[in-house]
From TrEMBL:
The lineage of its organism: Bacteria, Bacillati, Chloroflexota, Dehalococcoidia, Dehalococcoidales. This is Bifunctional protein PyrR. It comes from Dehalococcoides mccartyi. Regulates the transcription of the pyrimidine nucleotide (pyr) operon in response to exogenous pyrimidines. Also displays a weak uracil phosphoribosyltransferase activity which is not physiologically significant. One of its GO terms (biological process) is regulation of DNA-templated transcription. Belongs to the purine/pyrimidine phosphoribosyltransferase family. PyrR subfamily.
Amino acid sequence: MLVRGFFMAQKVILGAEDIRRTLARIAHEILERNQSSRDLVIIGMYTRGVPLANRLAENILRFEGLEIPVGTLDFSLYRDDLDSQRFHPTIKNTDIPFSINNKIVVLVDDVLFTGRSTRAAMDALIDYGRPKAIQLAVLVDRGHRELPVRADYIGKNIPAHGTRR
């Protein structure tokens, strides 16, 4: 990455068409793995997982004619860095207008790196009910886990070098 002023120039790793194709593939994988899709719900992790969750649900509707409930989850109060001097969470709105009890929850995020956000999201999710299973879908897996977390659906594996996200 190149440094320009205070910001680092970002390299584009997935273009719009790549993302469209990747989300279509992940939607097919979700349908293949979950034959009884009436137990399926999709929940996007704030912030960037929310539009991805909606797009996955749109793909499933287009492919199978199934309307899958979609929710959004704010997990900021469940993070393990709340006591950090530099982190002050902005509380967003969790919107899960359906029961997750005995449902297969597909939790959606854009990037999986250390696993800490996923752990926080699962902790937050459990406060809303007891799902039958939680599956994780991510657009990009960067590796470098600090916690034993693994995605069930991965758009693209792009290992980070060192500690770079």
